[in-house]
Amino acid sequence: MKKYRKAPVCIGFLLPVFLIYTLFLFIPLVQTGYYSLTEWNGITEKIFVGLDNFRDIFSNSDYWITFQNTIKLVVISLLIQIPMGLLLAYLLYMKTRGMKIYRTVFFLPVVIAPVAISLMFSLFYNSEIGVFNRLLEMIGLGAFQTNWLSNIRTLLYAVMAPQVWQYIGLYVTIFLGALQSIPGELVESAEIDGASRTQIFFHVVLPEIVNFTNICIVLCVTGSLKAFEHSWIMTGGGPGVRSAYLGVYMYKTAFVNSDFGTGSAITMTIVALSLVITVLFNKLAALTRD
Amino acid sequence: MKFLHKSWKYQLFTIVKYLFLTIMAVISLYPFIWVLISSFKDNNSIFGDPFGLPKELLIENYREVWEGADVGRNFLNSMFVCLVTLVILIMITSMGSYILTRVWKNGFLSIYFSLGIMIPIHALLIPSVLIFKRMGLTDNLFALVLMYTATNISFSMFIMNGFFEGIPREMDEAATIDGCSRSQIFFRIIFPIAKPGIATVATLAFLNCWNDLLLGLVLISSPHKKTLSLAISALKGSYATRYGLLCAGFVISIIPVVIMYLLFQKQVIAGMTAGAVKG
Questions:
Q1: Which of A221, B21, B80, B143 could form a disulfide with B132 if both were Cys (CB 3.0 to 4.6 A apart)?
Q2: What CATH number should be reported for the domain whose range is B71-229+253-278?
Q3: Do A111 and B258 touch (CB under 8 A)?
């Protein structure tokens, strides 16, 4: 009896969020899955082609170039953001004065729109103003001056740098929160036992925050897989797809070349990739914990 | 002797530590300061003396970008879209979260609503264009509102669930005995108590909406309907060589976010690290 009295409120309260979520998130997701199996330009009739789109993209060198670029971004982000985030967080954690000010400063770039960050870095790379080139000259590395966004050897890394730089603060903050949750007695008793700073870090602190490290890695990987703005704004992914990630390649295919079928197929590979990596990593993390 | 040795090492370590932290802080902050300073300069002064202070403060850049490039309009569009999204998002997710945590626990729905955390926005772009075409909302800011609301539901419910679960059950029971209905309990008691959670959701959702580019790119086409992100990305094309002006546009676009960050830093950081801290 009581249960039925609750029903109208339950439905009334849940319906709006359920409808919006289903109509504008869940159904589109399913539709993208379906579109990936069709040949379609958005105007004419959809033609069901099975897995042909996937066969096409997997035999397309552009796909593999952007795939490689994306994987490079994942690896570089992992190698720089996570260790740097942990290092800075640990330094702040060690009774550093002005800890909150440092944290505020490190986190600032994280909240700024990637579009704005990309615009800013296009100015820095700009060959006319050449902020970077002039800085290099000032610190005596003038020999390394180059046209960062047109030199084919620096292009991709110049596009990656702002993104890697922008999100270090996110990991600093997560690790700092994790470090602060470690009971103080644990570190103190190790200090009393005469453990060195490095010993304390590797044997006391690191095991305590290993879970957070796993989460940071997943965040870092999924964040990199979604990368779009930095590449799109600074170079449009070009020349060709030289500085494009999968996200940019998908956007170009679907909205510049009006190939919705192939665009959806590329999207599905991004979704699959992030799901697989997240699940695999969680499995792996669970294994190492046992 | 050993003690002295240790303290000497300790002092050196401390110096290196602060030096390193400060260098990293400068690397994080200086780019913004450079752009801020350059936004008051003209091209001559940016080329001639890129790292110096402006000789005179050129407010002209700001006036021109606000009126000439109509960035003021785009600014208001962004504000409108973000605020409407926030109101809708907070109403619907807090009501939903209240039911799922306190009245009718449903595992299936909870998992269903959490799916969105894993979905990249790319996966919604193509269908969203077609859905809004069918709804007659092509090139309409309400299409953005609906998509921003939908894409922020998962994390909002995740954060709110945590807050609603933390409120003692006795609150509901006492209120029921006093004769409150379910909706009265929610609006008069639970919603006000959950304010910190709502503030966290609001700040993070605001950042997500304000900073979005992709959905804007595919859903909006007329210049006067563009959001600030879109306008800023277009500035690069139309004012490619007016660097002071680009800098001014940049500063305008980040001011609301920076103010918000400085005012609500605790909520911003809590929201952005919520997944990590609770997961």
A1: B143
A2: 1.10.3720.10
A3: yes
